[in-house]
Structure formats: C-alpha cells, structure tokens
Amino acid sequence: MVISDYHKAFRAAFGRDDVAAIHLHGLRKRKGWKVGRDPGRYKGRRLKYSDAEIAWLRDNSTMEINAWCSAFQAMFGRPDVTPAKLHGIRKREGWKTGRTGHFDKGSVPWSKGKKLPFNPNSAATQFKKGQLPQNYVGPGHESIGDDGYVWIVTDQRNPWTGASTWRVHKHRWLWEQTHGPVPDGMVLKCLTDKLNTDPSNWELVPRGLLPRLNGRSGRHYDVAPAELKPTIMAVAKLEHRARTRRAYAKL
C-alpha cells in the first residue's frame, strides 16, 4: 500500500494513534517487506493515473505541453493536473516529443522576405546614424590603467581592430614622437614616477636588464628611494654587460 493509506488503515484497525507514518516506513524497511511496485515505472511520488489516462498521455505525448494539459483535463475531467506535472511524467517515462529545439537544415524563417511593421517602442532604443555610445572617448582622453601607467587615446588607426582610434601607453607614445620607434629587444624603463610621462623620465634599456631590477633580484628598483635608483641602474647595467660579453666569448 502507499505509505499514507498504509498508515491510515493501520490506525483504523488497531487504534494506534501513537504510530506515525514514518514509524511504519522504518518498520517496513527494517523487515525488508517489499511494496511490490515496479521502481522503473513509478519513480518518486506522483498523481495517480488510470491505465486509460496513461495510455492517452503516452499516445499524445508529442503535443505542446499546454495544449496537451488542456486536452487531458477536458478528456478526463482532471483539473488537478497541471502542465508542470505532465512535463514531469513525460520526463520520468522517457516519452520523446520529437522536437530538438534546433532549426532544421534548410528551414526558412517565418519573417523571410517580410517587412516588419514599424514599432515605436523598439525604434526608441535603436542607434541612430552617426550616434556615438555614451561611453565613447575621443583622441586625447587619458586614464590610469590597472598596471599603474597612463594610457592615452590617439587618433592613429588601431592595427589590430581597424578602429579609428588607438589606446596606447602615453609615455611610450610621447617618447616615440621624439626618438622614433622602440627597437626590438628594448623597452622603456621609468626613472622616477610612472605617472611622469615626459620622455626625459624614461630610458631605453635591453629587455634582458629587467630581471636585474625587479623584486626577485632583491633590488626592488621601482620602490627604491629616488637617490638610490641611479646606483641600482648602473650596477644592473654593468652586470648585464658583463654577462652579455661572456655569452659572446663562448660563441
């Protein structure tokens, strides 16, 4: 019996109001008494359906869920059945609808070749020709990036995206205006403060010199006192030059 009916019948037969349904459920499990229901067909608790109702649901399971529910209610007078409950039984029983949710290859959209009517609500939110987004910033706009460097928007075309503006590091852009492009293998190193973008505050150094200035080297050039930075830079250059000469000597 279903546990609720099992409990009700036991109390009526023996007058045991002290026994709850959970007690009988535990007793049944401890004793190993089988209920005899096919676990493959009845997965969990669900509404009771007659064989005729199950047969009708199975034969019409490909219908759209709301139409399926309305037709079932009208056929069997079951207002207690909702689309969600029918959706659950369809999933438990494994009844396929035949729909995948994908567009079939070669299918034609319903709007092809049709001019949709003017919608004033939709038109109010559309971009107008020549309109710029509210977050647009033009050439000359400056900002400080997460890396602590000053960035500037230039009027140069972005070589990667084709955009009409290009956001670059301001210190490098100003340095290249004076000295030309930064050679391969070289980088610009700040001498004092990163926010000072004047070309005189930046020195062209080999990329291989940077590990001798960072924190792993123990020198911490970027956070060192201003009076010590020239000495740290000179020692790092000397070590880098000596290592480069030894490398060439082995060739």
Description:
The protein contains eight helices and five strands; from the N terminus they run H-H-H-H-H-H-E-E-E-H-E-E-H. It is elongated. Helices cover 36% and strands 9% of the residues. A three-stranded antiparallel beta sheet has the order 1-2-3. A two-stranded antiparallel sheet has the order 4-5. It is mainly alpha-helical and 251 residues long. The chain has two domains: 3-93, no CATH class; 145-249, no CATH class.
Sum up the structure in keywords:
251 residues, mainly alpha, 2 domains, three-stranded antiparallel beta sheet, two-stranded antiparallel ribbon, 36% helix
| Low-confidence parts | none
Major sheet strand order: 1-2-3
Please indicate the percent range of residues in DSSP E strands (runs of 2 or more): 5-15%
How many β-strand stretches? 5
The mean pLDDT is 90
Q: Number of folding domains?
A: 2
Rg, please? 39 Å
Gap between N and C termini? 91 Å
Shape estimate:
elongated
Helical content, roughly?
25-40%
**Could you describe the largest sheet, including whether it forms a barrel?**
3 strands, antiparallel
